[in-house]
Amino acid sequence: MSMSKGQNVVVPASAVRVELGWRSGAGVPDTDASALLLVSGKVRSDADFVFYNQPAHASGAVRHEGKRNADGQVTDTLAVDLARVEPAIESVVLAASSDGGTFGQVPGLHIRVLDAASGAEIARYDSADASVETAFVLGELYRRQGTWKFRAVGQGYGSGLAGLATDYGITVDEPQPAAQTPPTPARPAPVQPAPPVAAPVTPPPPMPPAAPTQPVRLTKVTLTKAAPSVSLTKQGGTSGAMRVNLNWEVHKQFKGWGSKLGRAVAQHADLDLDLCALYELTDGRKGVVQALGNAFGALQRPPYIHLDGDDRTGAVSSGENLTINLDHKNELRRVLIFVTIYEGARSFADLHATVTLQPQFGAAVDFSLDECTVPSTVCALALITNTGSDLTVQREARYLVPERGVSPQRTVDYAYGWGMNWTPGRK
């Protein structure tokens, strides 16, 4: 159902997928979806803000699932389980922010609400009047007499995600530019930052989500050849669980067909990429976490790394994921994240892959792989190193070509001097 600004519609589903969409291209800024869970127009705490650096609400009702690019049509998705939204929450604001430009430079900006079970479209709103805005409230899900409804909003901000978040009560730890197009004529007077234990203005609901231990950080870190490393220590991301996600798609023609069909053909051809990790502990123990041989690891005991499963779709919401328990970082000396092609392709040449490291605290770290020009079946992605005083992530993006009869795992071992003994294994 296509909607105009201000129109509303009943949401008959108990769970929905909210897709923020636009067309990519030269000069188009990156765009990110976010959600704010509100009581009387404000968040109860910073934990009621769901976005790329805080991808899941404590209640499990709202999750940021990430981006997909299909033939130049990009979507950034939020999953909202309306049945799990806490009774105190009156509305879920659905917002977008641009990175590196304005929404006047983003073609085809729209929001869709889909039934999570059937995929049927419930509502769609296309934004046609964006200009200098750097943040947008595109819509909201709200309760009305026991029923959930969706309203198309289309309200812009010139102050970016920081300004939008602040207006809804989020504490942001980064400098904010002055608002150019505030949505309301009056803004609240500045207040001094208060420690997380300070009492809120209004009494919290019986079971509020736990507030983050520090102000929300909106910064994203993208590693490149020119800037290949980042300190997690300086970013404040050295505790809790760090999720590592690998997602991919075919970005060239596959077997003579267009890329869209190529992706389907590739999946039917059993394209299987495996995310793996070599680890070295401070006591000298070494090993590998991988699906091969069911070496999935563990989070609460050595090696404090766990592979979630074995995915064949490349989806951001699933993809290949592993988790590193940074609460035990002092027992980790180095961790090398790498990916192998198990079956379905002869090299990475026709694949576009993106790696995201999401610390529980601190900024998300992401990077894309360069184009592969060699017959590589294994790629070193990132090296995490603990020097004792610093925990760093180094972008490797290094395609390796195994010698005849040498496994991809052994090839990575040789390249990085791990010095392990290898035996054949299978899934």
UniProtKB/TrEMBL annotation:
UniProt biased composition (Pro residues): 180-209
Occurrences of domain TerD (ranges): 1-168
Xref: InterPro entries: Stress/Tellurium_Resist, Tellurite_resistance_TerA, TerD
Chain segments annotated as coiled-coil in the UniProt record: none
Pfam families xrefs: TerD
Region Disordered, annotated ranges: 173-209
Protein family per UniProt: Belongs to the CAPAB/TerDEXZ family.
Record PANTHER family: CAMP-BINDING PROTEIN 1-RELATED, GENERAL STRESS PROTEIN 16U
Protein name from the UniProt record: Tellurium resistance
Organism encoding this protein: Streptomyces antnestii
